[in-house]
């Protein structure tokens, strides 16, 4: 009987010891905690500059009664009012310059109109950032044999402050179709210095221009040599302008 009682006593003591041990909270070694914290703190760097993120390209605007804008907006007022027209086969909406006529304006001004003037979203391009090397594509209705040109806010140089710089011109060939003209710029600044805008299309006062869309693309270094002819230079000199 004594042996039986003693065995029961030993069993109870062992059972209580096991229960007590199993109820203790589990702990994590300090060195493992430090490792976990280090991994978390280095997994994200919130100090990344916004200028390290390449803006989505291209920028564009499609013109009509309601303009479809993606980084480019159209101005109005002064001599930059435009009117909506429908041209082509099938007919599509576009916008026309005034060629010296006074077009209806939201502000009711009576200035003669010659331009389509555009602003580029400063968050996408500003003061030559992220690159001054760009291509502007202008979709125009090829009607008549008159000319149009672009003028833009360029980077300053020793000889010019860069405002309203000449970016080249196009002479139309009267095909009665929509065509696209490419203008390559090496020194685009686009800091809102051309009447508060970045660039404009001039109808040269020799015929109204009908423009359907404008697109801007960034040019990578070494992409291609550019013709000085695109900047209004002598078209017969055969000179290439390596901007990059």
Q: What structural class do the secondary elements suggest?
A: alpha+beta
Terminal CA distance reads 104 Å
Q: Count the helices. How many? A: 2
Helix content: 10-25%
- Portion of residues in beta strands equals 25-35%
| Name of the CATH first level | Mainly Beta
CATH topology annotation: Jelly Rolls
Would you mind describing this structure in some detail?
The chain has 244 residues and is an alpha+beta fold. It has helices at 2-22, 30-41; strands spanning 59-62, 68-70, 72-74, 83-87, 92-96, 115-120, 134-141, 147-152, 165-171, 178-185, 199-202, 210-218, 226-227, 240-241. The chain has a single domain, classed as Sandwich (Jelly Rolls), CATH 2.60.120. The N and C termini lie far apart (104 Å).
What is the fold's blueprint, element by element?
Blueprint: H1 2-22, H2 30-41, E1 59-62, E2 68-70, E3 72-74, E4 83-87, E5 92-96, E6 115-120, E7 134-141, E8 147-152, E9 165-171, E10 178-185, E11 199-202, E12 210-218, E13 226-227, E14 240-241
Antiparallel strand pairs: 1-2, 1-12, 3-6, 4-5, 5-12, 6-11, 7-10, 7-12, 8-9, 8-11, 13-14
Describe what is shown at a glance.
The chain has 244 residues and is of the alpha+beta class. The chain has helices at residues 2-22, 30-41; strands spanning 59-62, 68-70, 72-74, 83-87, 92-96, 115-120, 134-141, 147-152, 165-171, 178-185, 199-202, 210-218, 226-227, 240-241. The protein has one domain: Jelly Rolls, CATH 2.60.120.
